[in-house]
Amino acid sequence: MSKYQELKQIAYDCNMQLPKLGLVLFTFGNASAVDRENEVFAIKPSGVAYESLQPEDIVIVDFDNNIVEGTMRPSSDTKTHAFLYKHWENIGGIVHTHSTHATAWAQAQRDIPIYGTTHADHLTQDIPCAPVMDDEMIKGDYEYQTGFQIMKAFKEKKLSYEEVEMVLVSNHAPFTWGKTPEKAVYNSAVLEELARMAMYSESINKDLPRLPDSLINKHYERKHGKNAYYGQS
């Protein structure tokens, strides 16, 4: 049995959640799970339909994009996952989809403004959209540069990847991450719902104001603050 069997199973389970949650169509997405001790991650093979995917199909890759275990070609987005794992040490899993509403915002090259308390329940910032890559980046090592562009956007916007666990890539689609692979999947579903809500809200009121800081702080702190009281202790 593979020493990475458990890691493969986790990645498989997370990938299988994506179509169930309505976040992927056909093969438009991937999820990965990292093993920090061995500096490898497990990721979906490229172009394999979810209905035929098996745990043993999951590919093990190191942070330099070398295949450690597996007979299939890993996801075409593998270099982006590897870049983020290598540079952001507290990520446990990554998800990439082309979910409809989040991708629409990415194609529009816009941050998703924080309009309501559902957004504030999860983060206190607008959901960032990384800028369009220049031609040289696109013509070069594109998937690696995608990771670089995400990290650059967070630096320029002075955002913490541990507080804002999601991003849009202009003209492309969303990426999410979390301390665990399961949290990355959760964040992907949340991002899609926030994108959908924001789009509908703007269609109703084109002059919609941003949520007041008092409501942002109240809703975030009641779930995440030191005196949080949401849920069960």
Describe what this molecule looks like in 3D.
Strands 4-3-2-1-5-8-7-6 form an 8-stranded mixed beta sheet, with helices on both faces. The radius of gyration is 18 Å and the shape is globular. The protein has 8 helices and 8 strands; from the N terminus they run H-E-E-E-E-H-E-H-H-E-H-H-E-E-H-H. The model has no long low-confidence stretch (mean pLDDT 97). It has one domain: 3-Layer(aba) Sandwich (L-fuculose-1-phosphate Aldolase). The protein is an alpha+beta fold. It starts with a helix and ends in a 9-residue tail after the last helix. Helix content is 40%, strand content 15%.
- Output the helix-strand order: HEEEEHEHHEHHEEHH
**Full CATH superfamily name:** Class II aldolase/adducin N-terminal domain
Mass-distribution shape: globular
**Poorly predicted parts:** none
Rg over CA atoms, rounded to whole Å, is 18 Å
Mean pLDDT across all residues, rounded? 97
Number of domains: 1
CATH class value = Alpha Beta
Structural category is: alpha+beta
Sheet with the most strands: spatial strand order: 4-3-2-1-5-8-7-6
- Terminal residue distance: 39 Å
Would you give the CATH topology? Answer: L-fuculose-1-phosphate Aldolase
Strand content: 5-15%
